[in-house]
Write a structure and sequence with these properties.
The protein is α/β, with parallel strands linked by helices. Helices cover 33% and strands 29% of the residues. The protein has one domain: Rossmann fold (3-Layer(aba) Sandwich). It has a 6-stranded mixed beta sheet, with helices on both faces. A 4-stranded antiparallel beta sheet has the order 2-1-4-5, with helices on one face. The chain is globular, with a radius of gyration of 18 Å.
Length: 233
Amino acid sequence: MPEDDTVVKLRQIERIYYKPDGSVLVRALNGVDLDIPRGQSIAVMGSSGSGKSTLMNILGCLDRPTGGTYLLDGNNVALLDDQMLSKIRGEEIGFVFQSFNLIPQLNIAENVEIPLYYQGIHPSVRSKRAAEILDRVGLGDRVEHRPNELSGGQQQRAAIARALVTHPSILLADEPTGNLDTETGDDVLRLFDQLHEEGLTTVVVTHDEEVGRRYERIIHLKDGNIDKDTMST
């Protein structure tokens, strides 16, 4: 596979948490190797404590590995200072969280514009891009509403719009349907299916086997290692 078709390349990634005395508290990741081709959809699964959240935090540049190499779209993350890391994170990665993380004092359009604000993009451009992406996720008629005026499913769609507004290389989602009922969750998952069909690279953490089967590749973690890496049938 050509190098430029690989969004993520992890080599021997370790994440060790230490006690105050310097001894090892836990090895959350223990030498993980992983390539994620552009446009692939991946479900990350595993029991509590398997390393799922740690892996997602490292993929999202929210945490740095203790050892190993992480290339994100060709950028060696370990060589970036905090300012450059923040810039890469803002431009390359979209995040969707279980708890939505919308700011209640802002309307939906303003929430979606936040990543563009931090990139220094002109207000008129921010407004236009936010309106376009909200329309894309089916919230074009809700731009002036605040989060508490929306249903859970609509709030999650707004959170997805915020993640997409920067045109990221990869979309990371941590249990994106965890706070939703089954019907609303299925609606959100159909949106993820559509994004994948449009070519976006997506990585979703889920504990639900049925959700996992929607993705073309399933990675099972166990004790900080990749236990199984299979293509969905």
